[in-house]
Amino acid sequence: MVAKKTAAQKAPAKKAAKGDGYECEVCGLAVTIDEVCDCIETCDIICYGEPMKARKIKVKAAAK
Predict the structure, then answer these.
(1) Do residues 26 and 50 lie in contact, with contact meaning Cβ atoms separated by under 8 Å?
(2) What confidence tens digit (pLDDT) does each residue in 37-60 have?
(3) How far apart are the C-alpha atoms of 40 and 57, rounded to whole Å?
């Protein structure tokens, strides 16, 4: 029998940093972190009731 990892045994989640990208696996919405919060714990970015997954997102340069 294989034991499942409990929340305490899982690797700690990385706190989001400026420029990190996240994408919703349901609708495809992609977000990029512009400002980092001062939370002590990590925060989940939720879309469709599920935490968004960290992804490398290509950002188009803004038109001047």
Answers:
(1) yes
(2) 888 777 888 999 999 999 886 666
(3) 26
